């Protein structure tokens, strides 16, 4: 009996379209026949079948509701309006066939019943779609600007932010994991819409898993589908979120990994888990202060930029409202010291320069000293040792320097430390000893890493 109930309930998506067809057809025929009144009997029969099919849709919908575990709050308006659709279809049939048998039908204008039916069936269908696809399904394709103007859109969850002073007091799950899931996953996995029978809006739903079983294996993120699906290639069928949805950042993915690797506790604070601060810096409150120079420079020649692009360099504006440029050699692994001279037309405009994974050597520092407004410099994965790095001392705006995966010589570390304009230096996988690290003075932050981030499908994008 239960199997039959489930089968009839799951026929609802098919059956529910029948009353829509009958009622809309009947309403259209009424409109076309409003002057001649020649099709009354045919229209009455159509509304008779509209009532029968609507009643069947109500029954199948009710069976689906009790069989699939929907909450009553989720379906109640759709259910009662479905019943109202059947009732008004019956009223229309009786009104057209022989209203004299029922006194109050004589006083009911046909046009009133028609408009009521059209309104009720439209709302009923919309609510049914919300149950099936989610409340934001209809408006999801609209541009954000239009959604904001109309004051509509999906529930707005806040991006997780930690207080840098009290970051160890934050609860890893409540303050980071769940807010990340709320912003990127819950729209498809909640109590009203649980794709794959998976609910991620609260802890118990996460522990329950979905139609394919548990999504978390304690202390084993690699075998936990909640994490494993996040790091699959973007075009993989099992990648989550789907590629047309907003993806998690590398830092957000890493938080999910850390949480699972630490027994997926729902109440432990970060400090209790003994985790490093570096893992959470991406979630600290950002200030509005820009690291880039607050000066005006002339715009670079379009022809000069086109020449550089033709040589395989990626050149793009830093932002609207200024003439600064970002330059990357990601497509030019053979880029060498002499090639830096190609950038001479845009020396003043370049504030962000990525020379990582190229063939530059220590000779490049002489040329780099001519980038008067350079603020971010990436020299990672190159053969530089730091010789001549003192040439950078005259770059007053230089704030961030990336030296990870280089042969940086510890003998040059004291010179590097004298570049007090620097705010952050990244030196993961260099040969700097613990003794040298202990002698660091000044306000510059030296980041030696020692932690891992998952590789994202976007890390190897070629522009």
From TrEMBL:
DUF2231 domain boundaries: 11-131
InterPro entries (UniProt xref): Cyt_c_Planctomycete-type (IPR011429), DUF2231_TM (IPR019251), LRR_dom_sf (IPR032675)
Keywords, ordered alphabetically: Membrane, Transmembrane, Transmembrane helix
Residue stretches spanning the membrane: 14-32, 44-65, 77-96, 108-128
Domain Cytochrome C Planctomycete-type: 185-244
UniProt superkingdom: Bacteria
Pfam families, per the entry: DUF2231, PSCyt1
Designated name of the protein: Cytochrome C Planctomycete-type domain-containing protein
């Amino acid at each position: 009996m239960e199997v039959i109930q489930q089968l009839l309930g799951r026929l609802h998506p098919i059956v529910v379209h029948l009353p829509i067809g009958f009622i809309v057809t009947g309403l259209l025929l009424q409109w076309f026949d409003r002057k001649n009144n020649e099709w009354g009997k045919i229209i009455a029969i159509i509304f008779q079948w509209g009532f029968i099919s609507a009643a069947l849709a109500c029954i199948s919908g009710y069976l689906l509701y009790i069989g699939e575990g929907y909450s009553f709050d989720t379906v109640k308006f759709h259910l009662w309006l479905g019943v109202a659709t059947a009732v008004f279809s019956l009223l229309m049939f009786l009104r057209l066939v022989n209203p004299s048998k029922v006194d109050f039908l004589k006083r009911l204008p046909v046009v009133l019943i028609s408009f009521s039916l059209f309104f009720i069936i439209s709302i009923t269908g919309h609510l049914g779609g919300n149950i099936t696809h989610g409340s934001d399904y209809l408006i999801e394709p609209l541009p954000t600007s239009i959604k904001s103007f109309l004051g509509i859109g999906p529930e707005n969850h806040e991006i997780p932010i930690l207080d840098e002073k009290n970051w160890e007091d934050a609860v890893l799950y409540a303050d980071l994991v769940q807010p990340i899931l709320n912003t990127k996953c819950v729209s498809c996995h909640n109590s009203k819409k649980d794709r794959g029978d998976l609910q991620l809006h609260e802890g118990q739903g996460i522990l329950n898993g979905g139609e394919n079983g548990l999504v978390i294996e304690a202390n084993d993120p690699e075998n936990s589908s909640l994490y494993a699906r996040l790091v699959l290639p973007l075009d993989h069928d099992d990648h989550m979120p789907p590629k047309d949805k907003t993806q998690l950042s590398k830092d957000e993915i890493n938080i999910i990994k850390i949480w699972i690797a630490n027994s997926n506790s729902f109440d432990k604070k970060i400090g209790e888990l003994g985790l490093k601060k570096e893992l959470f810096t991406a979630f600290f409150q950002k200030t509005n202060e820009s690291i880039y120079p607050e000066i005006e420079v002339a715009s670079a020649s379009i022809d000069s930029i086109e020449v550089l692009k033709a040589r395989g360099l990626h050149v793009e504006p830093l932002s609207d409202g200024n003439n600064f440029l970002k330059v990357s050699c990601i497509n030019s692994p053979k880029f060498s010291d002499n090639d830096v001279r190609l950038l001479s037309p845009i020396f003043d405009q370049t504030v962000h320069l990525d020379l990582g994974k190229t063939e530059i050597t220590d000779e490049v520092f002489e040329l780099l000293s001519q980038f008067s407004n350079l603020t971010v410099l990436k020299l990672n994965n190159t053969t530089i040792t730091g010789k001549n790095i003192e040439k950078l001392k005259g770059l007053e705006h230089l704030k961030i320097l990336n030296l990870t995966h280089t042969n940086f010589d510890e003998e040059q570390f004291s010179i590097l430390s004298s570049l007090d304009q620097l705010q952050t230096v990244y030196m993961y996988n260099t040969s700097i000893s613990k003794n040298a690290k202990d002698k660091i003075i000044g306000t510059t932050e030296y980041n030696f890493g020692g932690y891992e981030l998952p590789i994202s499908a976007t890390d190897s994008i070629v522009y």
